């Protein structure tokens, strides 16, 4: 019945995600190792809040971005110094009783991540900052973001949320742990994008390898903030040591046009805005 419905254009069949360890055959080709990472925390503040769960999947992949196998899995809890807020327990299902007495071994984390050439998270700007604070090994790794470094809507998905992507790949799952989300993300990245005939991981890797430019609109007129927001600028409140200012990340080829936009539309004069060059080693880091 399910196979018949799947062949029809009138139905979409979703199958329960069953984690697997084997994907495309390597056939003797050289492989590299990557890590999918997810952290659960007591809140959003990267300085004050604490990690309560870390999950990682180490996987091997081919030069064309095809995932070949799961090499290892890591999952651990961490007891924070203060009780877990009720809203976090409601969101994650993690209680004080679950994490009581648990610590995440930093040496075990470093050993697990040592040979990975890239770390991928579905919200890398969040996960990387917490990970670098707890485990220095992640400061020296290239990072990719599966939520922002693939244009999912362009490839026919309904959005970039994990549930949307999993449904677009033909699956559903009932996540209870961070490791469940890692398995879901692995399946999504292994999915062959119909318009390209290539796995989603290949698109992410290509984007992650490219340099991007962060353009700052410091001391921009307050009454033009909506213009900046419509353009895609985000606000930095300065609490993390970065400028208190609007900024945007653009492809290297679009740097000149972005500066021209600021000159003509925002400042109405010839300015030289602050520009940072970012790559996979610095992107999403608290140091960027």
Automatic annotation (TrEMBL):
<dbReference type="Pfam" id="PF00929">
    <property type="entry name" value="RNase_T"/>
</dbReference>
<protein>
    <submittedName>
        <fullName>DNA polymerase III subunit epsilon</fullName>
    </submittedName>
</protein>
<dbReference type="GO" id="GO:0008408">
    <property type="term" value="F:3'-5' exonuclease activity"/>
</dbReference>
<dbReference type="InterPro" id="IPR012337">
    <property type="entry name" value="RNaseH-like_sf"/>
</dbReference>
<dbReference type="InterPro" id="IPR013520">
    <property type="entry name" value="Ribonucl_H"/>
</dbReference>
<dbReference type="GO" id="GO:0045004">
    <property type="term" value="P:DNA replication proofreading"/>
</dbReference>
<dbReference type="GO" id="GO:0003676">
    <property type="term" value="F:nucleic acid binding"/>
</dbReference>
<feature type="domain" description="Exonuclease">
    <location>
        <begin position="33"/>
        <end position="198"/>
    </location>
</feature>
<comment type="function">
    <text>DNA polymerase III is a complex, multichain enzyme responsible for most of the replicative synthesis in bacteria. The epsilon subunit contain the editing function and is a proofreading 3'-5' exonuclease.</text>
</comment>
<comment type="subunit">
    <text>DNA polymerase III contains a core (composed of alpha, epsilon and theta chains) that associates with a tau subunit. This core dimerizes to form the POLIII' complex. PolIII' associates with the gamma complex (composed of gamma, delta, delta', psi and chi chains) and with the beta chain to form the complete DNA polymerase III complex.</text>
</comment>
<dbReference type="InterPro" id="IPR036397">
    <property type="entry name" value="RNaseH_sf"/>
</dbReference>
<dbReference type="GO" id="GO:0005829">
    <property type="term" value="C:cytosol"/>
</dbReference>
